[in-house]
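quick one, two chains, predict together pls
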Amino acid sequence: MASALDFRVTHVDGPARRGELMTAHGAVQTPAFMPVGTQGAVKAMTMRQLEDLGVEIVLANTYHLYLRPGDSRIARLGGLHRFMGWNRPILTDSGGYQVFSLAARRRVSDDGVWFRSHLDGSLHLLTPEKAVDIQAQLGSDIAMVLDECIAHPASDDEARVAMERTVRWARRGRERFQRVMESQRAPDGLLVSTPGQAQFGIVQGSIYPELREISARETVGVGFDAYAVGGLSVGEPIPLMYDIVERTAALLPANRPRYLMGTGTPGDLVECVARGIDLFDCVLPTRNARNGQLFTRQGRLNIKNAEFAEDGRPPDETCSCYTCRHFSRAYLRHLFHVGEMAGATLNTLHNLHFYLDTMRRIRDGIVFGSFETLRLEYQQTFPAEASQHG
Amino acid sequence: MASALDFRVTHVDGPARRGELMTAHGAVQTPAFMPVGTQGAVKAMTMRQLEDLGVEIVLANTYHLYLRPGDSRIARLGGLHRFMGWNRPILTDSGGYQVFSLAARRRVSDDGVWFRSHLDGSLHLLTPEKAVDIQAQLGSDIAMVLDECIAHPASDDEARVAMERTVRWARRGRERFQRVMESQRAPDGLLVSTPGQAQFGIVQGSIYPELREISARETVGVGFDAYAVGGLSVGEPIPLMYDIVERTAALLPANRPRYLMGTGTPGDLVECVARGIDLFDCVLPTRNARNGQLFTRQGRLNIKNAEFAEDGRPPDETCSCYTCRHFSRAYLRHLFHVGEMAGATLNTLHNLHFYLDTMRRIRDGIVFGSFETLRLEYQQTFPAEASQHG
């Protein structure tokens, strides 16, 4: 089966790559950042606001949508794009990460993961095949294979067992995916919402280079449309994370996009592009916005602080976003303090603008030879600090 | 002093009037509906969304803004328009209604109202003069005089005492307003944020026609820029409310706009325009949106209902709003159920669009002779039902 995913690298600067990814719902300029739309909506945003920001691709969480409103329901309503009113690309995760981090109880075996819903305690089984089926019904442009996510720290043995299981699941997931996509309509009445869906494999192996190497080799051997680096930004030291990213990216095919899952801070984006990553997602810009933390060219700004009570300046005087063009720190602080939803919206608009602007500057930097300068700027403005997976 | 407020009636249809109100921050086509921006933001909306909806004027609550962030702070930041990032007209209430409905404890005398903040229990005195000063510092385009708001039902005697006090307060409030506006900067260092501010008087008198008559005569005698009908939509029967509106409007100068405070349902808008009202405000479209109730041409629709779980139709198939053009009932129901803020935003966009569209249809109806037809339509679609003041 030919890859559903067209990917062209147009410029390189060391391991950093500038490219274009073509999906069933259009192009994504890479390196790209994907805002997280957990439950079929990016928190505090409308789709129009995302479009106006220039968002090209969003991530949606399979675990949440499987539980509510259900992938079959979404499929009957015409698929996730139509359901969300979003006609640009969507990537869905496999559901695995949330099962391992959010579900009430879980039991892993080679079959899959039994878990109880964090909402109503109902019992579910997620298998590599089921993860494919759910995402086929959702109809994302990019589906992720089911992997086993382990906590940090994990022993070499724990990490090896999970990595080896992830490889076995990758084979089963890929097989199921090919059968579903070739048949268009699987025997059990599965609805395939987006025929041109692509599937990414995931490299695991925790912080152990030798496990990462085996995982990369075996996963690439399965033959996915592209590959992700999973199991990072889970509490490990930042320099170690960067080191694993660098080693793992180097093991992945140069002609396929590389996706670093659940990362990161603005500094992480720049540093991991420098190590060969093309795609990112993270809840940091949206979650921190709702908590009153804004990312600016001067660093992080906590809008709650008393010092901003009569500060008539915008959050970032160099920023051209809607929030910075129209509103003061004093107003945003007021909205936060009185609990007005508009505060969450305006802060989120700003942070997503900052993240997308960072990606634009990264892409331009790679094309015009100024990427190293940008990297130094971000190292000074955003010294290494842990981001939050989600 | 000449009126700060230019008002032209261009068409009439019985007591119904089509006109234009010119304020310090631009024109308002009347009859008009003012969305409520309690704390300096219309809940779940950005200013750009309000602009895109065609909102021409918003109401802000003096009580809330006086307590947080404070009128002096807003004045130092350049006034409420600049603070909110809203360059179109703003009307502020006097703070009285919230003091009487929301403050923890209160004691009324001829001086004013002592009350305790519902936030921190701090003690405050609101007088007719103070209400003027606060609104001068906020810098709204239209300020309301302080009135005494009483509950329904009230005896004739209770209503008379409150009405007479309201008249005495009106004289003091008007005097203070003229002194502040003429001096531009009152002796005690008050900042006048909008020099061209206008001031409306308020007719009280509960459900008693004879008290309304005295109140209207005395309040008009004071000589405000325009007049409001207060003390309605507080629980009285709808037909009685309409009757009081009709009688009171007829007592007010024809060449000045008439504002019915805190009303109402879509049906109320049409019925009260038919009785001579030009301006409305109400929390109903925004509050009900957040509770999942949508106003449509077919009546009220509760998006929470299970029947909409797989309903791919928009809330109102005849509606041209952003929400109805892009999203299904199924999606809106999902957003409501999972608690996504986007649900509140999309529902609010729709309801405000419906209210503004109702006002557009009313204005066109008056101009083109189809107002009675519209009135019959609304009587059928929205049978009399109590709205909520707030």
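The interface with chain A takes residues 39-48, 64, 68-69, 73, 76-78, 83-85, 309-310, 312, 322, 326-328, 330-331, 334-335, 337-338, 340-346, 349 of chain B (CB under 8 Å).
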